[in-house]
Amino acid sequence: MVGHHFVEQLVQLSAADPAIEITVLSAESRLAYDRVHLSAYFSGKTAEDLAMTDEKTYQDWRVNFQTHAKVVDIDRVSKHVVTQNGQVIAYDKLILATGSYPFVPPIPGKDREHCLVYRTIDDLDKIQASAKVSKVGVVIGGGLLGLEAANALSHLGLKTHVVEFTPQLMAVQIDAGGGRLLKEKIEALGVEVHTSKATSVIEDGETCHYKLCFSDNTVLETDLILFSAGIRPYDNLAKSFALEMGERGGIVINNHCQTSDENIYAIGECALWNNFIFGLVAPGYQMAKVAAQQIIGEQAMFTGADMSTKLKLMGVEVGSIGDAHGKTPGAITYTYQNQPAGVYKKMVISSDKRKMLGAVLIGDTREYDTLLQYMLNAIDLPASPETLILPSSGEKPTLDVGALPNTAIICLCHHVTKGDIIDSIDQGASTVDDIKACTKASTGCGSCSVLLKRVADLAFEKLGVEAKIDIGESVF
């Protein structure tokens, strides 16, 4: 995804320069596809539905491309790469967008049949095949991807379990209170959650293919095992030709997304910026744009990215914003919970009660856009900030989109600002679909669709025109 976004950006930025030649080498059997919505593959979507481009598009863009073309060697002196087929391809600038691979814990028995990972379309095909001869499935890992994988197994008709090493689900994104409610809601959907479990060994089962033996001497029988215990940067190639690496992996980059070799860039999950690897698509897209701008001579910098996220996990709404754990010194926390309704909301604000620092939303994410914009734009909070998350019999206070500066980021995935949306309307966009096509807003994860509509409606209203009715959510 990030590599394809780089190609999009460079094609757009270099349209007037026919001398720029772009070559894409993919180790996979297909061109870029949407990994964010992989779970849709189990709901009837095809590989073609998930495709982000096709051969004709690349041909129209004059982009050379090869699939099944894994790069096995890079000569930094001669400036060429060698593919697994022995082909030698020269470069002036090299972009590493190799992404990451699933971390599989070193558990004895992990290499058995039906022990799989959840990362690519090929992985999904293997999961589907394995599910046909299975009745019970276990996902090892209770993070964001682990819960998506659990949803996939559930859709395939398996009795599904999630095994998590830490005491709660999604420990990176949400706090303990949110984790407890998320566990309850997911278990109510028929998926059993086992936290604080360390798998010692995978052995032959008695009623299923296998059994997981835990360090607390308990066991869990299963037919299929999906590992989703985090990711690791795909950086082995970079190590082999002596680029600077992080202590725990990752290709070190500067603010221009350059590696220790100024002619080689790294973007996405393989890149390490300020000792941090970004595991979301939005930061990767920002890196891709910076690298493309640098290559055509524009001065651009990557200065970090917000890791806030809103999503639905097995139908459960989850939102995480900024300092969700309240680690900022002096931070004040407001918490609201309605357990019968399955709702948990936490808001973290500064010690002077003026600025939003973070939030956790479980079961109801309607306030997500408002809270996020308060934080991103450092807007002063209302006199009673708790009203932002507390239920109200009257009109709930929301942030007036008219008060947002034109620099306010509406779409985190594609870094689309309010000003970009207004500009697209000034240039003739008359529907939200037009705005999406022009700016790419809400074409990534889709979580900004409501806010996009609010900004668009206000802009149309100011122009004295009525937007055409075409508002459609993502096909996923």
TrEMBL record:
<protein>
    <recommendedName>
        <fullName>NAD(P)/FAD-dependent oxidoreductase</fullName>
    </recommendedName>
</protein>
<keyword id="KW-0560">Oxidoreductase</keyword>
<dbReference type="GO" id="GO:0046872">
    <property type="term" value="F:metal ion binding"/>
</dbReference>
<dbReference type="InterPro" id="IPR036188">
    <property type="entry name" value="FAD/NAD-bd_sf"/>
</dbReference>
<keyword id="KW-0285">Flavoprotein</keyword>
<keyword id="KW-0534">Nitrate assimilation</keyword>
<dbReference type="InterPro" id="IPR052034">
    <property type="entry name" value="NasD-like"/>
</dbReference>
<keyword id="KW-0479">Metal-binding</keyword>
<keyword id="KW-0349">Heme</keyword>
<dbReference type="InterPro" id="IPR007419">
    <property type="entry name" value="BFD-like_2Fe2S-bd_dom"/>
</dbReference>
<dbReference type="Pfam" id="PF18267">
    <property type="entry name" value="Rubredoxin_C"/>
</dbReference>
<keyword id="KW-0408">Iron</keyword>
<keyword id="KW-0001">2Fe-2S</keyword>
<feature type="domain" description="BFD-like [2Fe-2S]-binding">
    <location>
        <begin position="409"/>
        <end position="450"/>
    </location>
</feature>
<feature type="domain" description="NADH-rubredoxin oxidoreductase C-terminal">
    <location>
        <begin position="308"/>
        <end position="376"/>
    </location>
</feature>
<dbReference type="GO" id="GO:0051537">
    <property type="term" value="F:2 iron, 2 sulfur cluster binding"/>
</dbReference>
<dbReference type="Pfam" id="PF07992">
    <property type="entry name" value="Pyr_redox_2"/>
</dbReference>
<dbReference type="InterPro" id="IPR041575">
    <property type="entry name" value="Rubredoxin_C"/>
</dbReference>
<comment type="similarity">
    <text>Belongs to the nitrite and sulfite reductase 4Fe-4S domain family.</text>
</comment>
<dbReference type="GO" id="GO:0016491">
    <property type="term" value="F:oxidoreductase activity"/>
</dbReference>
<dbReference type="InterPro" id="IPR023753">
    <property type="entry name" value="FAD/NAD-binding_dom"/>
</dbReference>
<dbReference type="GO" id="GO:0042128">
    <property type="term" value="P:nitrate assimilation"/>
</dbReference>
<keyword id="KW-0274">FAD</keyword>
<dbReference type="Pfam" id="PF04324">
    <property type="entry name" value="Fer2_BFD"/>
</dbReference>
<keyword id="KW-0411">Iron-sulfur</keyword>
<dbReference type="InterPro" id="IPR016156">
    <property type="entry name" value="FAD/NAD-linked_Rdtase_dimer_sf"/>
</dbReference>
<dbReference type="InterPro" id="IPR041854">
    <property type="entry name" value="BFD-like_2Fe2S-bd_dom_sf"/>
</dbReference>
<comment type="pathway">
    <text>Nitrogen metabolism; nitrate reduction (assimilation).</text>
</comment>
<feature type="domain" description="FAD/NAD(P)-binding">
    <location>
        <begin position="15"/>
        <end position="294"/>
    </location>
</feature>
